[in-house]
Amino acid sequence: MKRQNARTLALIVSILTYLVVGAAVFETLESKQEKSHKRRLDARKYELMRKFNLTKANFEELELVVLQLKPHKAGVQWKFAGSFYFAITVITTIGYGHAAPSTDSGKVFCMFYALLGIPLTLVMFQSLGERINTFVRYLLHQAKKCLGMRQTEVSMANMVTVGFFSCLSTLCVGAAAFSHCEGWSFLHAFYYCFITLTTIGFGDYVALQRDDALQNDPRYVAFCFVYILMGLTVIGAFLNLVVLRFLTMNTEDERRDAKQKALMTVGKPRGEVTRLLPLSTSTSSTVVANDATKAKDLKGAYTEVLHFQTICSCLWYRSKEKLQGSIPTMIPQEMTFSDAYLQQNSNCPHYMDPGSTGCVCSPRQCTSISSITTGLHILSPFNLFKRRSSV
Amino acid sequence: MKKQNVRTLSLILCMFSYLLVGAAVFDALESESENSRRRILEQKRSEMKRKYRFSEDDYREIERVVLQAEPHRAGRQWKFAGSFYFAITVITTIGYGHAAPGTDAGKVFCMFYAVLGIPLTLVMFQSLGERMNTFVRYLLHKMKQCLGFRHTEVSMENMVLVGFLSCIGTLCVGAAAFSHFEGWSFFHAYYYCFITLTTIGFGDFVALQKKEDLQEKTPYVAFSFMYILVGLTVIGAFLNLVVLRFLTMNTEDERRDAQERASLKRDRGLLEGPTGPRVVEIHQENDKRYDKFSPPLQRFVLS
């Protein structure tokens, strides 16, 4: 089965399993407490009904009024500050629900507002997150140089560690602030920050809902807005670092498959090869014949390498990143592997023998990729021309 | 200024203006109605307080009990069906809040559950969305061939149109279904589907909350879960088609800048090399720096 399809199926199965497991655990943790809580509340309700001599209908009427007053209890929700808060919850998809448009026109505007706002916000957070990652990478590089370390390259592990700790500290700072300002326990404030910054936004805990804070405490209001937006940026930067590459995996595989297919259907020398010919324009037919056989070898080599990469995806991604850093831009992108392999084949044949399982991904053979990358360092324009000028 | 920085700054500015404009419009649309509703409700409340002779404390007590009992009004929320519903709202980040973990252990597990579940779900929806787009592209291609078009290539516009219509279709199907089962107006059901499938999830409208639906109406429960997951896939496919490329723009630009820097260094090294042939190759079509020296794809050997 095609790799992308296998990957997609595996992901679907994992998600469904994850949901079932989660449901079972939540049921175990919450069901009993729910039952006892409901019983206590019902008992209390009947007590109150007896105390004030209320019929069921009366109590239900009372219930309705109380529930409808709930959003108003927290203060005015739709003045400018409240509307700004609401707009943030819409375009970041947090969606607490502490305030929701009650008019139909409000609902309609909300939908159009979200339609444009959500992609804009996604792109903005990823853009800013990438800038932050680049800046952090630069800082780490300088820090490594200052500390006199031997290898000043900033590895992925470094970046992930820094990112993870930034996320954790952002949550802790928020937890401390909100537990102080809202009177929640530290755990509940941490839970609130987590649910907010992952954009889940249950609405069981919502900031700025006490004592009409939206109207009375502009500094706290500003702090909340800044915290939410900056926190989302930090989380977005971490996602940009860790998750974004996986979102494009299928697309990249399709692109690579299309290239492979195109190469398969072409029997004659490809454009990239002929591009090198202009210099040796005084070619004899032998050069053309050479290039024809070279093209066949090229196709074969390319297929080999692609076959290798098809199975060993981890190496594909690692080698791709290494290559993009180290290849001299002399070589057009499409030709990298074919040319490199050609070079390798002419200098040191590294034939890749698929093992019994069909997978070439064993430690012994996997050194081929690293030798390709080192081979590229050898592959300077000097060698390139040396080959051509041997005509 | 570097392109990525300009892009990022303008995006930040756009977002802030967008928020300001949105806030102003929501204020204009909702503030009046909020005030009048509040007045009516407060009037009703004082009427009731007088009628039943509640003191302020009595009322507070009743209010507390009613608010705490609110989630229970919709039936048992934490049996398996309800927990599954909750788990969906966590990992898809919809987060209605119709049910939220009451125990501290539940809250802690919820956080760990989300940390792993949300990226997994993101990757899954994008993966499946990409597969769907590829399949749709294939179908459109075949259709164009069957209909005897001259150009059987499927353009981006075709895909975007089909994607957009699928999203609208999904929302309408959901709106029809939920307006029937939940007794909402078509408009409110549409609004519910939209808020759900964009993962905003206010919780003002929540399906499966009519008395004991979660326990009793199993086919409807299954339909709701399927609808949410399939709907999110359709939206995810559309996002994969239209938005995903923009999320990697800065990264691609950084990569291209790094390549340019590397090539510049190498060329400088070659030109100043003490021995060996001095060769300068200019390959990159998008290498604007070399444009003023020679057209791209030209080589010359310095003797």
TrEMBL record, chain A:
Domain Potassium channel, residue spans: 77-132, 168-243
A cellular component term, taken from the record's GO annotations: plasma membrane
Pfam families on file: Ion_trans_2 (PF07885)
An annotated Gene Ontology molecular function: open rectifier potassium channel activity
Record-annotated membrane-spanning stretches: 76-96, 108-128, 157-178, 190-208, 220-247
Keywords associated with the record: Ion channel, Ion transport, Membrane, Potassium, Potassium channel, Potassium transport, Transmembrane, Transmembrane helix, Transport
Annotated compartments: Membrane
Gene Ontology terms describing biological process: heart contraction; stabilization of membrane potential
Membrane topology listed for this record: Multi-pass membrane protein
UniProt similarity note: Belongs to the two pore domain potassium channel (TC 1.A.1.8) family.
Name used for this protein in its record: Potassium channel subfamily K member
Automatic annotation (TrEMBL), chain B:
GO biological process: stabilization of membrane potential
One GO term describing the cellular component: plasma membrane
Keyword hit for Iron: no
Membrane topology label: Multi-pass membrane protein
Domain Potassium channel, chain residue ranges per copy: 76-132, 168-243
Subcellular location field: Membrane
Molecular function GO terms recorded: outward rectifier potassium channel activity; potassium ion leak channel activity
PANTHER family: POTASSIUM CHANNEL SUBFAMILY K MEMBER 15, POTASSIUM CHANNEL, SUBFAMILY K
Family to which this protein belongs: Belongs to the two pore domain potassium channel (TC 1.A.1.8) family.
Name under which the protein is recorded: Potassium channel, subfamily K, member 15
Lineage summary: Eukaryota, Metazoa, Chordata, Craniata, Vertebrata
